[in-house]
Amino acid sequence: MRRPTLEAVAARAGVSRATASRVVNGQTTVAPHIRDAVLRAIDELGYVPNSAARSLVTQRTDSIALVVSEPGTRVFSEDPMFSTAIRSASMELEAVNKQVVLMMASSAKSHARLERYISGGHVDGVMLISMHGADPLPSALSRLRVPVVSYGRPAVPVEIPYVDNDNIGGAEAGVRHLVETGRRRIATIAGPQDMIGGQDRLTGYRNVLRDSDHRSIVAVGDFTRESGAVAMRQLLRDDPELDAVFVANDLMAVGALQSLRQAGRRVPDDVAVVGFDDIEAAKYTEPPLTTLRHPVAEQAAAMVRLLLNLFEGGASEPVILPTELVIRESA
Amino acid sequence: MRRPTLEAVAARAGVSRATASRVVNGQTTVAPHIRDAVLRAIDELGYVPNSAARSLVTQRTDSIALVVSEPGTRVFSEDPMFSTAIRSASMELEAVNKQVVLMMASSAKSHARLERYISGGHVDGVMLISMHGADPLPSALSRLRVPVVSYGRPAVPVEIPYVDNDNIGGAEAGVRHLVETGRRRIATIAGPQDMIGGQDRLTGYRNVLRDSDHRSIVAVGDFTRESGAVAMRQLLRDDPELDAVFVANDLMAVGALQSLRQAGRRVPDDVAVVGFDDIEAAKYTEPPLTTLRHPVAEQAAAMVRLLLNLFEGGASEPVILPTELVIRESA
DNA sequence: ATCTCTTGAGAGAGCGCTCTCTCCACCTTC
DNA sequence: GAAGGTGGAGAGAGCGCTCTCTCAAGAGAT
């Protein structure tokens, strides 16, 4: 009891396989009454083209690998940016009838597997999300002659089109807001320095405070709540006088708020806090978080467009999307 | 400049295509020195089997659809349960060399697309995550003669193996905790009643409070923070005397905590709050949330095992995993 | 010495589809 | 009316692989 083939459709419609194929693929050189007969046969038989056979001859698969190169398991599961990006990219690709093959690249073993898979021609292109600086994946993939685009600027200088948000500009805006509201000692909890986002947001912080006396100290987290809480405790220990902290993402800011609360500091009265990302949870912290919003879904959609553009042979310029300061109560 | 084929490997190793295929597929009926020659040729040529050609003949694709049937866009992006489940399932499938094809089923249009895709033989099996009660997908897919398993019990009675956590038992434990700690008027914020998880957790609440005078009122949310905040405001308006609330998931509990704060109620002194899920954020609320933990990753892994078992022809019983009360400060 | 059995390897038929090439019928043009 | 177009449809090759069938060679049994 096998699924019907194009052959069966053709037989039922009384035409050749070639003609049936033409109808299936929407070619216009088929007379209307024949096309109707074929369509009817397709409908009656419940015919669905066999994708394996099709891609065997067309050399296309119509599927795209969405590679999530994640550091710890924690981050991926907890950071809503990931799911938003995945979801948006997925919807966008669905709209153009491409499949999304989701691949996690955590270990070196999975890297090898990934490379083999991708070079195996299973996918037409690759979208890379959030890799670390040391990640060998971008360069490895770009060597594979497979179209690759990246969500976020790759850390190593490699010729891959990417979409990123203006991390530096956003961080600058956030820190500037702290300066303008009269804060004197502005610390920061930076993200992982092997991630571009982590680096750039720290750069933005430094750009504003360079040669000023507002600067305080830097602690480094890994974008998790827990690391934010730890970093905040350390900052309070190292500079008890600080009156503001710029945190490189909202998740860490949530942790920082908790540490501040536990240390008896009032936010924003004693210490102002600015986060980054504007995740949904930022509205629900105590107090609600002032943060920098960037369009994650749009960024993912832009990445998809970039990739599709690559398929068409177009050269793709990197895209940088703006960030926006959202002022709530924490600063 | 085409990728090397099995033919090329065979030629280089001086054997027939059939023998090369035997080596690639790990058959043992090949003499060691010949096997070595083939492996060397594979290595030198960088041969990777063409999956389209392979699945054309084997009628297998080695890929599994992970269908996320989500109601609103919000929930998926923000609820960390989704990403945890997806991640866990994905890792588990990778371990057995299966691909994960991610599919979002939001609109009716995407349902049609999905059915077509799945019945098109693109995937060997389907894993369904979180559908609504009215979701026609489970029955539709089970009709397609494609192996299907579900994350969470399907709302309609359909013969699909599933893995779920003990929603009723968990809710009972949570509400019982409130009773035992002396609460008198225990309200609840229920989940969407077209989702099994929403129904069952409400059932658990009712089971404990049936025929008791502890019972208060029921508000219904949709598992988002926002809906939790709204529902809490409504509960306070309708029963200002309530001294406890059992919230059907942590996300809504976060919203509820905010509303309680805004209403000037102290937690847990005035109102005790119990959530459900034990998401990471539950540790960082003010105060930290007492909630019911259930093993999301294990649940996803069990779902994968169920599906693999189905491939082997084994009959699969539903699996119910236990929940655990995690007592923090909110109750 | 003959026969059967096992082991190892090759030949070749497809899997279901696309796409080029070919051909036929009909229409235009001089 | 013959030559040249043109649109519509079929024939058939082949995409890269697996797998059955076949066969050769050697081992063991009679």
TrEMBL record, chains A, B:
CDD domains, per database record: HTH_LacI, PBP1_LacI_sugar_binding-like
Pfam families: LacI, Peripla_BP_3
Regions annotated as coiled coil: none
The keyword Membrane is annotated on this UniProt entry: no
InterPro entries attached to this UniProt entry: HTH_LacI (IPR000843), LacI/GalR-like_sensor (IPR046335), Lambda_DNA-bd_dom_sf (IPR010982), Peripla_BP_I (IPR028082)
Residues annotated as domain HTH lacI-type: 4-58
SMART domains documented for this protein: HTH_LACI
One function term, GO molecular function aspect: DNA-binding transcription factor activity
Keywords recorded for this protein, A-Z: DNA-binding, Transcription, Transcription regulation
PROSITE patterns: HTH_LACI_2
Full protein name: LacI family transcriptional regulator
